[in-house]
Write a structure and sequence with these properties.
By secondary structure, the protein is α+β, with helices and mostly antiparallel strands. It folds into 3 domains: 146 residues, no CATH class; 71 residues; 120 residues, CBS-domain. It contains 12 helices and 9 strands. A hairpin with a 2-residue loop joins strand 1 and strand 2.
Length: 346
């Protein structure tokens, strides 16, 4: 997630916070500062009033973190890789590389977060104001996440149940449509009653659309390997190629990135971003990116697309052994998906 920075590691997972978190923290501190008990501390005198408001605001995101760590812990027990946990203005998300499609596993991962929130709610609903408010929040967090709509846990729970009867792709479409309908009703209600509810509804609607789109594309590309879509015998450059020559290649062939090959091995990639501030006489070896991601001809097309999205890159060298045999771009894959989608509908 852009504009995020790491604050710690839990269970070997990077925990990152987005800059938007600062905005909501300030808003939450103000809300707790001005609200009356039991949902605020307006009856206290400063400095305790501001201290309690600050602690409660931070505790909300601590609760969200515990919620996401619970998802991550169960996912890791199933052997799933959890790349990071992001906290942002609307809450948090565990970035899981590849969710299992088995209904029981998806159900277990999805329900872990709400159960953790319910447990915290039960533990904290004791007669002390700060803990009681923390308990109320976790109860709301658990209930909210059980709404049957993506990207909430309830959407994944609904899909895991429906998958037993309709299969993964159709179950996703049904769950996404349920989420869209709920989001529309929430949005209409929010426009008249609470603007935050309208914003959350927009977030839910977009999450449903993205989940449906991702699963649809995965279904379309399921049978295809990189060998089916890659460009063979791609143009490449060497470490001693000059930047001016790379720019010439870009202008001639309209490709914005080229593998860098030395002694038959791919050692880097040079893109328009690399050359834009370089001098024409500079060598590629001085500006290329050495941190490269490669795929093989047998890599699944959707896996390559996932890698591109995750790493925010536009193309991947294709290697066999250590030899460059092709290159595949994001546009190659999206064009294939578009063609398959049209053929399927036709």
């Amino acid at each position: 997630m852009a504009y995020s920075f790491r604050i710690c590691r839990i269970l070997g997972i990077d925990v990152k916070v987005h800059v938007s978190l600062a905005v909501i923290l300030v808003i939450l501190i103000y809300v707790f500062y001005v609200n009356d008990p039991p949902f605020g501390f307006s009856d206290l005198k400063n400095p305790m009033r501001i201290i309690y408001s600050f602690v409660m605001a931070v505790s909300i995101f601590l609760a969200v973190l515990i919620h996401e760590v619970s998802h991550s812990f169960v996912a890791m027990r199933f052997g799933v890789v959890v790349r990071e946990i992001d906290l942002f203005i609307f809450g948090g998300v565990a970035v899981i590389e590849k969710l299992p499609k088995e209904p029981k596993k998806e159900f277990a991962i999805a329900i872990a977060g709400p159960l953790a929130s319910l447990a915290l709610s039960t533990l904290m609903l004791i007669p002390y104001r700060l803990f009681t408010l923390f308990g109320y929040f976790n109860l709301v967090l658990a209930i909210f996440n059980l709404i049957p709509a993506f990207p909430m846990d309830g959407g994944r729970i609904l899909r895991s149940v429906l998958s037993k009867y309709y299969g993964y792709v159709k179950a996703t479409k049904i769950s996404a449509n349920v989420g869209k309908v709920l989001a529309i009703f929430m949005g209409i209600f929010g426009l008249f009653r609470n603007i935050w509810l309208a914003l959350i509804a927009l977030f839910i609607y977009m999450g449903a659309v993205e989940e449906e789109k991702a699963v649809t594309i995965e279904g379309l590309l399921a049978k295809y390997k990189i060998a089916d879509v890659m460009t063979q015998n791609p143009i490449f450059v060497t470490p001693d190629t000059k930047v001016g020559d790379v720019i010439g290649l870009m202008l001639k062939h309209k490709h914005l990135g080229y593998p860098v090959v030395e002694d038959g091995k791919v050692i880097g990639i040079v893109t328009l971003k690399d050359v834009i501030n370089a001098k024409e006489e500079d060598l590629v070896s001085n500006i290329m990116s050495r941190d490269i991601v490669v795929v093989t001809p047998d890599t699944e097309v959707f896996e390559a697309l996932r890698l591109m999205t995750e790493k925010r890159i536009g193309r991947l060298p294709v290697v066999e052994g250590e030899k460059l045999v092709g290159i595949v771009s994001r546009s190659d894959i999206t064009k294939l998906a578009e063609i398959l989608d049209i053929l399927q509908k036709g």
